[in-house]
Amino acid sequence: MRGAFRFSMNPWGPWSAIALGARSRFFESGEARLAVLFLLAEGPKHGYQLIKELQERSGGLYRASTGTVYPTLQELDDEGLISSEREDGKRIYHITEAGRAELKRNPEMVDRIWQRAERWEDWGNSIRPESFAVLAPAKTLLKAAFYAAARAGGRPDREQRIRDILDHALREMTELEKSWKAKR
Question: What is the pTM of this model?
Answer without folding.
Answer: 0.57
